[in-house]
Amino acid sequence: MSPIARKHNLVAVGTKDPKVQLCDLKSGSRIHILQGHRGEILSVRWSPRYEHILATASTDSKVHVWDVRRASGSLFTLDQHNGDKSKASSEAVNTAHNGRANGLCFTADGLHLLTTGTDDRMRLWNSATGENTLVNYGKVVNESRKGLKFTVSRGCSPEFVFVPCGTSVAVYGLHSGELITMLRGHYNNVDCCEFHPDFQELYSGGKDCNILAWVPVLRQPDIEGEETNSKQGGTQAAVNPAFEDAWSSDED
User: Fold this and answer.
1) Is the full-model pTM beyond 0.70?
2) Using one digit for the tens of pLDDT, what is the confidence trace for 4-28?
């Protein structure tokens, strides 16, 4: 479902059928289909900026961007080579990935779209023009035969991308492409990630039946703040009481 829709109640559904189905919550029936893919639909995502814009990814290596108000085909198909046919064979033209395209995620402002594929690549696109921004994330291991559920931070500067990678979660700089760190804690493959902007927390779910919450490290007080606290009789004021140990006493 669209996170911002006010003029429609549509649910976009991807199945093993190449046709993307649009269902209306009010009537409870399918009211429209989007035709253009030639393989199973692995991921669908609504734009957080425009309520009628939808992106879809498929096993046919393609990612289509649609305006669901239009009865004709998609607005455009993402091309990893940005139209440079000298870099691609005739079979690879207008493909987002060289393998299955199985993951989609818009940035919080909706200006960019991230895609992942089984070619072990992640790409960042201009969602208005479909241009590949050519950010290099290196090898992003992706062996999933179903949709990959990854996410982007919101309210951070710089922004980060959180991608399931085996039993870990890989954290990349959105615009730099740099691998920042690997979050390790699951005992089996990670299936999905979700970011909570209000608490700046990441939640990951895995095949080990666990849901882990990743909490940001609190910033240490600066030197000037420490001096002020020491003059006031200690640094206790800088400690968040939520993280204090309430079970043991100082007498032990």
Assistant:
1) yes
2) 999 999 999 999 999 999 999 989 8
